[in-house]
Design the sequence.
């Protein structure tokens, strides 16, 4: 089982790239897509809007927990409810985390949640997690073993700076990350490529691919249409496919 986390600065294209990855990887693999952004929109991008999140279940649990007696009951309460909110698309499943309990909270419910995710992961070959912008999701440590941390950057030094900070924080938090790579998105020309390449090299960041600015993708997003409608020969789709091949994860 391979866990891929998509991270990066705000608005760089994390959700769109996560959706394309899920689409491409699920051609050959059993994929679970996890929307870990409280502002859930991976599900929309994949054309499967979720109605209930893990956060909703947690709230229900906190309301009812005094009536639930033994340990085992709490665990199975979570498991059965989490299972029930997994949306099953044709080629992949999707679950949304919803809102967290709050920073620095090591509540019992969060621990059970982590256990449930670890258990769920065992049912799939690939888990693709879309996260909210910035570093907070790492601090929450819902995932402690990451095979591939893909940091999406736009065409900016700040995008790469965020990648650098994410790498540092993952180290500090002792999150096991096997590989970290940067995807540069919304790239418009050769000049952008060269500039980003040089900057990444200096920062010792692995730049694994360039995704061009794609008018078709932007048009779908403008109309709130899912990325499942993006054609296979569109520039962004082809570029993400190349990244998958280069990473050898397809
Ligand atoms: N390759 C691309 N070509 C054109 N537009 C793109 C591309 N990638 C992303 N966009 C546009 O950039 C905007 C942000 O994309 P997206 O929502 O995927 O970013 P995000 O990093 O998930 O944002 P957030 O930090 O809010 O979660 C959207 O309007 C989207 O249409
Ligand atoms: Mg997003």
Sequence:
């Amino acid at each position: 089982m391979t866990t891929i986390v998509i991270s990066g600065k705000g608005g760089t294209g994390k959700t769109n790239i996560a959706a394309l990855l899920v689409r491409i990887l699920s051609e050959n693999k059993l994929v679970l897509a996890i929307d870990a952004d409280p502002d859930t929109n991976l599900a929309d991008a994949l054309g499967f809007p979720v109605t209930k999140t893990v956060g909703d279940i947690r709230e229900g649990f906190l309301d009812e927990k005094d009536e639930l007696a033994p340990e085992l009951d709490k665990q199975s309460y979570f498991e059965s409810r989490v299972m029930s909110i997994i949306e099953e698309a044709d080629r992949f499943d999707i679950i949304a985390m919803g809102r967290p309990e709050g920073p620095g909270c090591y509540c019992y419910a969060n621990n059970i949640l982590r256990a449930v995710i670890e258990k769920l992961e065992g049912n799939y070959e690939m888990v693709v997690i879309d996260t909210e912008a910035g570093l907070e999701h790492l601090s929450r440590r819902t995932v402690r073993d990451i095979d591939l941390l893909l940091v999406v950057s736009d065409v900016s030094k700040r995008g790469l700076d965020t990648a650098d900070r994410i790498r540092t924080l993952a180290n500090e938090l002792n999150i096991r990350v096997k590989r970290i790579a940067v995807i540069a998105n919304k790239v418009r020309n050769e000049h952008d490529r060269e500039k980003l390449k040089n900057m990444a090299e200096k920062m010792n960041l692995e730049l694994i691919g360039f995704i061009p600015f794609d008018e078709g993708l932007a048009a779908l997003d403008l109309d709130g249409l899912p990325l499942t409608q993006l054609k296979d020969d569109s520039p962004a789709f082809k570029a993400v496919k190349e990244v998958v091949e280069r990473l050898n994860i397809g």
Q: What stands out?
A: The mean pLDDT is 89.
